[in-house]
Specification:
With 318 residues, the protein is an alpha/beta fold. Helix content is 53%, strand content 12%. Strands 3-2-4-1-5-6-7 form a seven-stranded parallel β-sheet, with helices on both faces. The structure holds guanosine-5'-triphosphate (GTP) and magnesium ion.
């Protein structure tokens, strides 16, 4: 495992991909990998991008990559689709779209789906971020598809979160309902070449005004107009991302966020270990005895769970 870590540290993409597979597949090597990864303090900037399906997130990411590469920064991208059972492979359209960067050594693109990651997809994403950081990428972009609870949790990993809206989709109200307003550090109104963009911006401004979300923490959430397909507004978007980062630094919010995140990691890992232990227990003879009792009606589910709970913590065989 130490060898794998060293290889990742030297920038070997294949080793990085292997480590992410270990994370996704919950193989027995996972905890030793995580222990070694934990020794490295994440240095990369983490940018999250979310919004309704088809809003132009991947096209924007593509533009961001181009802009960042121009500044000589290397970029790692995690495209996370909680609704997709596919992992790692190349089945997400995002990979195809961003394929032109595939030959660029300074860019690494990886998709992750929902397939049975212990501890949840957000935890797996957090672990994958550590791998990308160890590979040496300066900026890590996390794109999530769709609008659900797990997306909100995944976006929590980012220092700066971009919420992408587009005209004609009734997006403001949808975004509001989905809880996206609260997590946005920056709003991007993409497809501003299409009719309705001005109206959308106006709606958004009203909503921000009404909810006062905009001025929470004294950060004025900007609205940036882009036409991702024409690479318009990307520079201004990069400028605002940088401004937000400086704001976080100045206010000490970054440090506070890091501390909270560390603490959260303790509990996430604890739950993950417990989940693993429960899963292992299901393969034991002891459990099949308990299951028999349950089926015969000798004990009810609560009683069985309580016995298991005790046994899990006093397992003499481990
Ligand atoms: N007119 C116009 N079309 C755009 C713009 N940006 C993206 N598109 C188009 O919108 C479609 C969806 O773009 P994507 O970048 O795949 O959007 P996405 O948000 O990543 O989509 P999902 O990942 O499926 O949720 C594509 O056909 C893009 O070419 C834009 O600024 N203007
Ligand atoms: Mg996409």
């Amino acid at each position: 495992m130490q060898k794998l870590i060293e290889s990742i540290r030297s920038g070997n993409k294949r080793s990085g991909a292997r480590a992410i597979s270990i994370i996704e597949n919950n193989s027995s090597e996972k905890i030793s990998l995580l222990k070694l990864l934990a020794k490295n303090k994440v240095k990369a900037r983490i940018i999250g991008i979310t919004g309704s399906p088809g809003a132009g997130k991947s096209t924007l990411v593509d533009g961001l990559i181009r802009q960042l590469r121009r500044q000589n920064l290397t970029v790692g991208i995690l495209a996370i689709d909680p609704s997709s059972p596919f992992t790692g492979g190349a089945l997400l359209g995002d990979r195809v779209r961003m394929q032109k960067h595939a030959t660029d050594d300074g860019v690494f693109i990886r998709s992750m789906g929902s397939r049975g990651t212990l501890g949840g997809l957000a935890k797996a994403t957090k672990d994958a971020v550590k791998v990308l950081d160890l590979l040496g990428y300066d900026v890590i972009i996390i794109e999530t598809v769709g609008v659900g609870q797990s997306e909100l949790e995944i976006m929590n990993l980012a220092e700066t979160t971009l919420v992408v809206l587009h005209p004609g989709a009734g997006d403001t109200i949808q975004a509001f309902k989905a809880g996206l307003m609260e997590i946005a550090d920056l709003f991007v109104v993409n497809k501003s070449d299409l009719p309705g963009a001005k109206k959308l911006i106006h709606e958004l401004e009203l909503l921000l005004e009404m909810t006062k979300i905009r001025t929470a923490n004294l950060w004025i959430t900007p609205i940036i107009e882009t036409i991702a397909t024409q690479n318009q507004g990307i520079e201004s978007l990069c400028g605002q991302i940088e401004a937000h980062y400086q704001f976080l630094l100045e206010k000490g919010i970054l440090e506070q966020k890091r501390r909270l995140s560390l603490e959260k990691e303790v509990f996430d890992t604890l739950f993950e270990l417990l989940e693993q232990k429960v899963k292992n227990y299901q393969d034991k003879e002891e459990y099949s005895d308990l299951r028999d009792m349950l089926i015969k009606g000798e004990k009810n589910p609560i009683e069985i769970a309580e016995i298991m709970f005790t046994n899990l913590f006093y397992d003499k065989n481990e």
